Amino acid sequence: MNTISDNDLILYFYRDGLDAARIGEIDDALFASPDLRARYTRLQQMLHAVDADPAPEPDAQFNERVWQRLDARIAALDPAAPATGWRVRLFDTLHSLLVPRAAFAAACMLLLAIGVGFYAGRSTAPQPDEIAQTRANAMATRVLDAYVAEHLRATEGLLLTAVNSDDAGLVGNRDLAASLVDSNRLYAQAATRSGNARLADFLRQLEPVLLELANQSPDTSVQSIDGLRDYLKKTDLLFQVRATQARIDATGKHST
Amino acid sequence: MATDEVRWVAEARRGDRNAFRRLVEAYSRALFALCLRITRDSTMAEDAVQEALFNAYRHLGDFDGRSSFKTWLHRIAVNAALEQLRRNGKHGVTFSDASPDDDGEDFLASRADEAPTPDRHALGGEIGRQIEDQLARMSTLERTAFVMRHHEGQSLETIAETLSLNISASKQAIFRAVRKLRGALEPLR
């Protein structure tokens, strides 16, 4: 009976890695030998004790958190595909009117709208209605916030890909990075115009990194790519993008 | 559920992110449990789930339906968890690392005469902690192979394929993992 080892019993327990003949031999041996039965019982106890250890559970917000990050990354991967957040759905209608360079075009339109809104309210009305102007300003800010939040989601996806993907993946995102450079600049101007200096400063901080990513090419050295990744990790830029995005989302919720 | 899943996969492959979200909601918590068992770190586990789902989305076109979607997704998650460990410098221990538990000798006989007692059952919580300790002692690949075999019910063939090992090496990893687990019960006897 000693020809049946503990390793055989482990495979027998899982009914894996043994052919039918060997399983039959072990069945017979277990029936005939109390010692072998005791050994097998011992193994079963041990492995069943492992089952008593409960499966680890994530916190309640886990699914939502995972999806938010994932949705942003997928959007960055395929900016033309429809996103699923409520804010995105709302603005899909606007985006659908735009040409493929949607981010840039939207930023241009937004800049124009904010500019017209602010200057019209401040300088051309003979007797400005303060309430109406306040409302117009608040609306302009909300619209800017919504666009910037989407812009930051796309930027987050881009940065995550830059940090995590292989070199080819990083280079493959340069078109997206280039489009984000353009829109980033315009959103920064819009933020300045609407009086949100903090947001404007942050967007300006993003620009060099977006430019760097937009200029990656298949010939870019490994050292350069690694240097960029190190920079992203050391500066917590990804965290700052998420924090700014969260702040804008929170502001949007309070104001609606 | 199976029908829904087939539909969601088909729609997600066509770029429908709502369908992919359904799949994420269906599987992300189970993926977290799997990745946490491998990484032993909730932050790494969450990042691994994130990477696994992102990779799954990018490679949905490669899913050929030969295995279930769950098996396919879990295999991606195992590799994402191992990648997190590598990135965090915690993947140093390999199969070549021998330990006193790797002697290959039978270990069950020495305790085979002991039957479980009510007292021992009452120590379930303590056993759980001891098992945690023993799982932490395993090398990454031993633990991964064991988690895949024991908790996930994956075949040796799938384990070997996922971990880029041969079947024999996969078996040896599981044998060593089980041997290490015996330490979880011995202090309680």
Please sum up the structure shown.
The complex is a heterodimer of chains A (256) and B (189). With 256 residues, chain A is mainly α. Chain A has 12 helices and no strands.
Q: What would you say this structure looks like, in words?
A:
The complex is a heterodimer of chains A (256) and B (189). Chain A folds into two domains: 6-51, no CATH class; 62-255, no CATH class. In chain A, helix 4 (62-77) crosses helix 7, helix 6 packs parallel to helix 9 (174-193) and helix 7 runs antiparallel to helix 9. Chain A is elongated, with a radius of gyration of 29 Å. Chain A is mainly α and 256 residues long. Chain A contains twelve helices and no strands. Chain B has two domains: 2-87, RNA polymerase sigma factor, region 2, helix turn helix motif (Rna Polymerase Sigma Factor, Chain: A, Orthogonal Bundle); 100-188, Orthogonal Bundle (Arc Repressor Mutant, subunit A). In chain B, helix 2 (17-39) packs antiparallel against helix 3, helix 2 (17-39) packs across helix 4 and helix 8 (156-162) crosses helix 9. Chain B is elongated and about 55 Å long. Chains A and B meet through helix 1, helix 3 and helix 4 of A and helix 2, helix 3, helix 6, helix 7 and helix 9 of B.
